[in-house]
Specification:
This protein is rod-shaped. A two-stranded antiparallel ribbon has the order 1-2. The mean pLDDT is 85. Strand 1 and strand 2 form a beta hairpin. By secondary structure, it is α+β, with helices and mostly antiparallel strands. The longest helix is centred in the middle third of the chain and has 34 residues. 60% of the residues lie in helices and 14% in strands. Helix 1 runs antiparallel to helix 2.
Length: 86
Amino acid sequence: MFGTFAVLGRIRQAELESGCAPWCASDDVRRMRRDYLVADVALGVSVLAFGGALWTLLAAPTKAPPVSAWARPLPGGVGVGVGFVL
């Protein structure tokens, strides 16, 4: 999306510079600036999304915590206790 609107803005700018500059209609200039603004916002959102994904990837634990299990007789010999530790 960034690339599309940046190219559209550049095309409109080139048309204005070669055709009517510096007396271009304000609507034409506004359209060109809108394309550049949409491109800038799309680029900012992309950079923030990439940064968030990278931070999530790097902040994740590198390996799963060890899991242990145990079994032992209960006091009085009535049964067996079983437990898991994550």
